[in-house]
Fold this sequence. Notes:
The protein is of the alpha/beta class. It is 45% helix and 15% strand.
Amino acid sequence: MKYHVKDLDLAPAGRLRIEWAEREMPVLRQIRKRFADEKPFAGVRLSACLHVTTETANLMRTLHAGGADIVLVASNPLSTQDDVAAALVAYDEIPVYAIKGEDDATYYEHIHAAIDHKPHITMDDGADLVSTIHKSRREALEQIIGGTEETTTGVIRLRAMAKEGALAYPIIAVNDALTKHLFDNRYGTGQSTMDGVIRATNVLIAGKTVVVAGYGWCSRGIAMRAHGMGANVIVTEVDPLKALEAVMDGYRVMPMIEAAPIGDIFLTSTGDINVIDRHHFEVMKDGAIVANAGHFNVELNIPALAEMAVAPPRRVRPFVDEYTLPDGRRIHILAEGRLVNLSAAEGHPSAVMDMSFANQALSAEYLLHHAEELEKTVYAVPEQIDLAIAELKLAAMGVKIDELTEEQKRYLASWEEGT
């Protein structure tokens, strides 16, 4: 078996952490049990480009139990948990190509290793695997029947490809499942982002002015958690409806250029480029902390900041780079602008990833049965999968809900009765 991980001696520690995460993933455990019995992926090659975390490990083990022939590579150079990568190789015999801190050349060598696997199904987080296949490895398209995409940034890229007619096979947007973005994006990103900031800096959040860029589901979660920890939260937006919602939720809303001089901590999660740009850095206060929770580090214009600085950045703490400007002001970039929640912390809690990765597993299974019926575009997760996952999660939590009576069903289906 070929693989490329940091150190196989880390495997025992990784195994313990994978088992710990599994305790909080009851939905995926139930799916794994069924997959192990039915083997729906027997003979199927699957290449996954995901953050290599304890939660991802449990998804890989679930697909592997279902008979899938898997290769796993990292979807970000800083998000790999090296002990987890080692454990998947050593204990589960799943080839992994991922090392925390790998350079860009190694990162793409690993992606090409996933393509060399000749997958029938791709599983992506950010669409780097899919875009590489389409740009430079088109021979791999011959056997691919479909794929899944985990995150907002990747869905944006894939929809752009589909709009231009460039997408060569169907993709299910796992990110758009209600059991994904309403929970993973909001509660997962909210908690893990603040966890990353605190681990990297050890600053007190209470009393700080925290500027949150965007008010999509990820940013809502960040704003909610920052507010809950005592921060004064400012939201910046380009969408009037989302901006209005942020105002109604009790946050101050203003343009980034107005927020830049007063913010203590800046957090982006928009999926767009240069959300914090040169002219924002120019007016930030001394000691400002800037981090990104979006998939790519392009949300922060770090090259512009480097040009403004009087010297190369100083690494003052792990994951904290200090840029000094000509007037002596210091601006701190966390985790090189990459996902702070996965780079400086451990990513989303297992309990919320349980639903997200249940969507991945069941969407991949759906592709096996329906790929021939699907067009070369981006699809939502089928509603029946979303509802099934919600029901499984509620049952695992010991929560019961009401059912409609036959009378209520008839009433909701009728139009005759009124005032």
